From TrEMBL:
The gene is LAMP5. PANTHER family: LYSOSOME-ASSOCIATED MEMBRANE GLYCOPROTEIN (PTHR11506), LYSOSOME-ASSOCIATED MEMBRANE GLYCOPROTEIN 5 (PTHR11506:SF35). It is a single-pass type I membrane protein. This is Lysosome-associated membrane glycoprotein 5. InterPro entries: Lamp2-like_luminal, Lysosome-assoc_membr_glycop. It comes from Haplochromis burtoni.
């Protein structure tokens, strides 16, 4: 895969937490990522006794002003997002594959995060500061039919394991729209494929309305039947209840 040009389009978003990145090849968009990302990174700090280590947790978000690099291929693509003079590097790897019944899909196959605990804006008094790398293992996330973009408002969380201290790094993505392959129009996502969580939330929102409409329809049907019953009853001749009146008939 040849190196391509990366572009930061975050200024197009009104959401201050959301970043928009694109990778282009020969002047055409081949990969687009739009999301907000939050990191939770545990790190060691020397205790006050100067002997024991305690664990603190750094929390920060992906900045909109990050720098972008990427690669596009027919079955493998990737995007590298860096900030703070390469103190932080987020790498996301995508791949295509065929599943049951010959259905082609794409997915995130690996996420890697490089962070430098000597960077003091997020890591305060870190013990033995330096660069660390955390990665996912056997990942198959955001599985999406080929030719479509993945869309998800709900938070999607990945756990990465740091190779040196075996600490769990949490990477949470939300307000997502991603497409690493088969972009038909420049800077335009293809048909969206909504995540299951969003579909479930949508159903939970609309289900009370649907049930209310069904209940209203049942009430209308019952009232209509009752109205016709009253009309039919009123149209029938009424026989006198006093049997002595039959003699004069």
């Amino acid at each position: 895969m040849a190196e391509q040009e990366g572009e930061n389009l975050s200024g197009l978003s009104n959401n201050p937490d959301k970043a928009i990145f694109a990778v282009r090849e020969n002047g055409t968009t081949c990969l687009m990522v739009e999301f907000a990302v939050k990191f939770l990174v545990p790190y060691d700090v020397l205790a006050l006794n100067g002997i024991d280590l305690i664990t603190e947790q750094a929390s920060f978000t992906l900045p909109r002003g990050a720098e972008i690099e990427g690669k596009c291929g027919s079955t493998e693509s990737e995007i590298h997002i860096t900030w703070k003079n390469n103190a932080y590097i987020l790498r996301i790897y995508f791949s295509k594959e065929f599943r049951d019944k010959g259905i082609e899909v794409w997915k995130i196959s690996k996420v890697q995060f490089v962070y430098d605990t000597s960077e003091t804006s997020h890591f305060i008094n870190a013990y033995n500061p330096g660069k660390h790398t955390a990665s996912t293992h056997r990942l198959s996330a955001l599985v999406t039919p080929a030719g479509r973009s993945y869309v998800c408002t709900a938070q999607q969380t990945l756990t990465l394991i740091s190779s040196d201290h075996q600490k769990g790094i949490t990477v949470s993505m939300y307000d997502i729209q991603i497409q690493p392959f088969d972009i038909a129009s420049d800077f335009m996502f293809s048909e969206p494929y909504k995540c299951i969580t969003d579909q479930r939330e949508r159903l939970e929102e609309t289900l009370p309305l649907i049930l209310g409409l069904i209940l209203g329809l049942i009430i209308v049907i019952i009232l209509t039947i009752y109205h016709f019953h009253l009309k039919l009853t009123a149209a029938q001749p009424q026989l006198p209840r006093d049997r002595s009146m039959y003699k004069n008939m």
